[in-house]
Amino acid sequence: MKIIDAHVHLYPEPIIEKECTVSEEPVNDLLMNLSKKITKNNISQAVVYILDEKILSQDITIPKNLIVSTTVGIQKNYQLDIKKASYKNIKILKILPYDQKIFRKQYPKIRELAQLAKDQKMVLSICSTYGSKMIYDTNGVELATYIKKSVDLPIILAHGGGPKIFDAMSISLDYEDVFLDLSFSLKYWWNSSVIKDYAFAVKKLEGSRCFYGSDYPYVSFKESMSYFLKFITKYDISDEDKKQILTNNFEEFKKRYL
Ligand SMILES: [Zn+2]
Hints:
This protein is α/β, with parallel strands linked by helices and 258 residues long. Helix content is 43%, strand content 14%. Helix 4 crosses helix 5 (140-150) and helix 6 (165-174) runs parallel beside helix 8 (193-204). The longest helix is centred in the C-terminal third of the chain and has 19 residues, at 239-257.
């Protein structure tokens, strides 16, 4: 079965600080190494999230099996960053409510950003993990819902919401262009009731709108696949839904929006 990994990172070690300053590293070499690595792991294509918008001012060569997404400056310069991303044909913009400290009072600004992204026919991917010291200050699923009320652009809820999976599921049921990726969460919440809720959500969505993802290098390619397969078996998810999650849903998404 063809595998598309809808969530990987560029820097090969799980160090978030490196990820956020990755423009200081040899980006083209990192892209090439990642491209080889996904092929070695039988993944036909991957979305690579680059969390440093400074790469938008660099000359980057994107290997064919990678789809690049970048952050944009939230506090300043997002207008210019969106233009630069559009010029480079980057179609997915990553928003990280936790790392970029996006609290409720900034939501109107993010809505403006979303409108500019929509004008360029882009997609937003919003980090939707739930937890950390700022557990009550940032919330990706809430931000996505806020944006969708007034700006009609596709949104990926990266990691699927964690314990907020039902919230993520319910907005995805109502908007056919809100997607969930399963990266990180299956491993992180394994053996907790959250995983049962992920299975419920996948079934409720009839296998649609969900993308397979690893969150490499925070979860290795092999480990991620093994949790995904355990999940499929344990919760009796059909072969058809499995294929949708691993391949078809993302292929369809690419055709429509990228
Ligand atoms: Zn990630």
